[in-house]
């Protein structure tokens, strides 16, 4: 098993590929540049199995249909943002991209709450981590000690909470009650910027200093 960070789209949002030895992959948050991502997958002989969305802001979903249609795979999204994919005002593209609104077809599988999700040889623990957006989730893959946290937790920072549905205290509570309960050596694969670890953020993240 291994993983790769691939910045994509207008904000260079981190897309992640989690791969097994057979080069089957789960794709997290393909934010844009769909044709280039598909070309890379073909070049490397990688076979996608599914797309997992940490949330449905425009910069995390831009390449969803390009990848889904090319490979015939399913898209997973939390129930609280099921309407966001097809609504440019909710996913934010109407405000941030102007005439380049992003409209994506509905998700194939709806995440209704926390629990375990199995896709092929991959098994994840799902944590609801709203606050940046109401349907934000984090996917913990224990075999590699990595959590795909979307825009909940960053190296030295946390997700912005001034967008529709954001809630600063809710985000802090979710980080404290769920993400910081993971082993300290857990890699945090964030939606933007470099990766970090739970222990590093516990020690030095100024937003978490009260915990």
TrEMBL record:
Region named Disordered: 192-211
Pfam families: Lactamase_B (PF00753)
Domain Metallo-beta-lactamase: residue ranges: 12-192
Entries under Gene3D superfamilies matching the protein: Ribonuclease Z/Hydroxyacylglutathione hydrolase-like (3.60.15.10)
Record's compositionally biased regions (Polar residues): 193-211
Transmembrane segments: none
Taxonomy, superkingdom: Bacteria
Co-factor requirement: Zn(2+)
UniProtKB keywords: Hydrolase, Metal-binding, Zinc
PANTHER family, alphabetized: HYDROXYACYLGLUTATHIONE HYDROLASE GLOC (PTHR46233)
Protein name: MBL fold metallo-hydrolase
């Amino acid at each position: 098993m291994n993983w790769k960070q691939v910045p994509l789209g207008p904000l260079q949002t981190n897309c992640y590929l989690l791969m097994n030895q057979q080069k089957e992959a789960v794709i997290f948050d393909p934010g844009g540049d769909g044709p280039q991502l598909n070309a890379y997958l073909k070049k490397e002989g990688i076979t996608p199995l599914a797309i997992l969305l940490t949330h449905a802001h425009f910069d995390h979903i831009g390449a969803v249909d390009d990848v889904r249609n090319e490979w015939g795979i399913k898209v997973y999204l939390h129930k609280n943002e099921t309407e966001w994919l097809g609504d440019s005002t909710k996913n934010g593209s109407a405000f941030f991209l102007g005439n380049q609104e992003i409209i994506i077809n509905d998700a194939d599988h709806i995440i209704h709450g926390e629990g375990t999700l199995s896709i092929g040889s991959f098994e994840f623990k799902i944590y609801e981590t709203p606050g940046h957006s109401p349907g934000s989730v984090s996917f913990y893959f224990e075999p590699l000690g990595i959590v795909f946290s979307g825009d909940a937790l960053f190296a030295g920072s946390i997700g912005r909470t001034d967008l529709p549905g954001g809630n600063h205290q809710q985000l802090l509570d979710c980080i404290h009650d769920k993400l910081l309960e993971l082993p300290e050596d857990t890699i945090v694969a964030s939606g933007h910027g470099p990766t970090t670890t739970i222990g590093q953020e516990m020690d030095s993240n100024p937003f978490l200093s009260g915990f």
